[in-house]
Amino acid sequence: MINHLRNKIRNTPRRTWIHCGIISTIVLILLIIELVRLFSLTEIKAADLYLHQDPNRESAVVSEIPHGQHVKVIKQSNNWWYIKYNNKKGWIPSWLVGVDGYNVKTSDQLPQTTIVIDPGHGGSDSGTLSANENYMEKTYTLQMAKKVANELRQQHVNVIMTRTRDEYVTLAKRTQLADQSHADLFISFHFNSDNGNGNADGYGVYQYHSSDNKVANTVNDALDNLPVKSRGVSFGNYYVLRENQRPAILCEMGFMDSAHDIHYIQSSDYQQHVADDMSKALSKYFD
């Protein structure tokens, strides 16, 4: 039988071998192309995601994308990806794509949100000063904002900061960033002043639009275990609240010229305490 096989191979026309070689090469090339295409696609590691019509969680749901699917990213906008899946096109939150086990239908709403964190002042704008004028508000708004941002990111929130270093950012740019990113919430961090008298202390939450009362009260209530007293929720005619097209609050987390508050304002533990409570408050608010 072996001899028969040898004779058959020996008697096979050369043209046949050439055709077989060409076909094999084409098949191999197609296989390589398909593998390259597959590896160039993004795998959904979340348990389930919504495909939205627009790049925000408020827009209509076009489809659902289950775990393990591979999608093609066409373009990006504010950490949202425009993709094609099952002949449908839409937007998905890129920050949740790689979160193992995240299920949009059963998990908390907070991870789906985009929150703009605004460290008040910066650069040439020092903000208020401590009683001895040695410490500037801009330093501690940035420190606290970074801790809050980090805590929220650990909850898989899409966090955007108006500044990440000591630089001046106009009030208009801060509010525009919230609008452009279609933020679910804008939070501005500040520290208050009693005009150098040092007679006032405590934290306060401010809102301008009545539609922001609920989030302001939710945050204020969650912060009531801080070592500085609560001054409650108040109306604040501040630019970043008044001119903001997105839900917005401003948090004055103590008085720079208060001998009591400055100790906490400078404390990393206090800043983290605020970050922890803020995360819990927002989780409650969005759910």
Automatic annotation (TrEMBL):
Tell me the GO BP annotations in alphabetical order.
cell wall organization; peptidoglycan catabolic process
Residue ranges of the TM segments = 16-39
This protein's GO cellular component annotations are: outer membrane-bounded periplasmic space
Q: Under which name does UniProt file this protein?
A: N-acetylmuramoyl-L-alanine amidase
**Could you state a single Gene Ontology molecular function term?**
N-acetylmuramoyl-L-alanine amidase activity
Write the record's keywords in alphabetical order, separated by commas. Answer: Cell wall biogenesis/degradation, Hydrolase, Membrane, Transmembrane, Transmembrane helix
Which InterPro entries does this UniProt record tie to the protein? Answer: MurNAc-LAA_cat (IPR002508), N-acetylmuramoyl_amidase_3 (IPR050695), SH3-like_bac-type (IPR003646), SH3-like_dom_sf (IPR036028)
Identify the residues that the record assigns to the SH3b domain, covering every copy: 39-100
Region forming the signal peptide:
none
Write the lineage as a comma-separated list: Bacteria, Bacillati, Bacillota, Bacilli, Lactobacillales
Instruction: Offer one Pfam family short name for this entry.
Output: Amidase_3
- Please give the PANTHER family that the UniProt record associates with this protein: N-ACETYLMURAMOYL-L-ALANINE AMIDASE, N-ACETYLMURAMOYL-L-ALANINE AMIDASE AMIC
The UniProt entry, under CDD domains, shows: MurNAc-LAA
Positions the record marks as coiled coil are none
